[in-house]
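Good day; I would like, with your permission, to put a structural problem before you. The record follows directly beneath this note:
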Amino acid sequence: MNSVSPGTSQYGSPEALRRAMGHRNLSGHADQNRTGSEAAARDGDTDEVEKIKSKLLTAWHSVKYGWAVKTKTSFSTSSPLYLLGQHYDLSFHDDIERFQKDFISRVWMTYRKDFPALEGTVFTTDCGWGCMIRSAQMLLAQGLLVHLLSRGWFWPDASYIHLVDVEPIRSSSPSNTLLFSVPSSTKYPQERAHSTRNALPHRRCVHDPHQEQMHRDILRWLSDHPEAPFGLHHMVHFGGSLGKKAGDWYGPSIVAHILRKALEKNSKVPELSVYVSQDCTVYRGDVEHLLGEDPPSGTSSVGKAVIILVPVRLGGETFNPVYKHCVKEFLQMPSCLGIIGGKPKHSLYFIGFQDSYLLYLDPHYCQPYVDTSKEDFPLESFHCNHPRKMPITRMDPSCTFAFYARHRKEFDLLCNHLAKALNSTSAEEKYPVFSISAGKAQEYSGAEGMHYAPHPPQSRTARRKMMRPNSDEFEFL
């Protein structure tokens, strides 16, 4: 059931709220003979009204654009849960704690408001159109965390802040269920974080200064500021060369190329690059060129690294369920960075699964702009306390898979894992989700029939729809 602010229910819309606030202001000036003290009190009331207005508008934006705080999300204790390659058995208390800590540590990028206007526009919020970019930022953040800190890194605060409560319950089914519930007194993630921090001081962990600084640096690079190399301002700028502008709808393939451009132009992480596959084919020669030669053994150099993005379409108008097995195989891989995609008209960042349900982070929550130029800017709004899931069959067929390879040896191992998943005997599909080919793309572009992209089985009508220009470049709102 959706959680809607009482103020939002009362006013119904931002327009109604503004009319109500305007009425209050007019009535406030009715008496021209007020004393100075009364005028000062009125100014204080106006400040309070503005604060209330801001909170109500934030609540309205969050409800309008898809965020509804769910009180409970259930997970089975009898089935393994995978989160970006990490395995959890929720029948064990230690694994429950590890899962919570791991989930909370993932970077959560959402709609923001009141940030510096995007260049050449009056946009100070991305509500309603920027969710696919936010999903791409979350994926990039995961890649940066793995590259700069390792997959085993956890946000220290997550180890002692219980952002969710875990309640084992009895179910009518043979297996037990865990309910991850948000207390009724809590409505928004950052409020929960502040309240629980004071409640559990004994669980605090020692912060590694280097890791904490790197964590903050990554969030600064992703912040909504014109100078942030991976922030919304630069993402929109790079989208301009691909025919997109602020306020337009972005698809999972477009944002893959935006991420590639962002990494190419940045000077913060020069040893990391992005490869975007062509026609559902990963060309090993092209990836190896980006990786460069492995550094000599015994040296401190780690060489080049690459994020591999594979835009695909898993069906015609809807997700083809024969691809469920392969999607889950990918999310079990240690090198997987997640999936940019969503459900119809709703962009999401998929990071795991249990049984036939996908675990995800949702960008459809409007939060105020955070000034990351400050030394100790708050971190809570960049981490989510609501684990959510949805049936894999509701997944929109347009998506982009992401993988990470630190060097050539890891890339070779990744190719072996992908080959097994793509050609598994237990897979139901007749055509692989994508293919891996030796050599470079230009070696095949001139050969007739070699530049072929495998497509899922579908009707002739659905195939014609797929081949329309920009068929997968719509925004999931």
